[in-house]
Amino acid sequence: MVKIIWTQRSITDLKSIAEYISKDSVKYASLTIERIIDVTKYIETNPRIGRMVPDIGRNDLIREIIFGNYRIIYKIAKTMTVYIVCLQTNLHSLMS
Question: Residue 39 falls within a domain, yes or no?
Fold first, then answer.
């Protein structure tokens, strides 16, 4: 089982998502954040569950899980650690 570490950027992204959704519904914002966190727990037992990020190329260690309108981008480290790098809407490219 790998350890998951949320980077500062990913925490900021999570907060931004919550703030944006809470403008319409605090309840839905909380539920969305809870579900995003739950999805990342699958990485603990299967770090390669996500697909390779198309924007990056063929880097097997940078992966993403698509959840609803969000891309959860993570990096597999060699020390049984996975870093959640950032969260983006499906509309954003990593290269922009």
Answer: yes
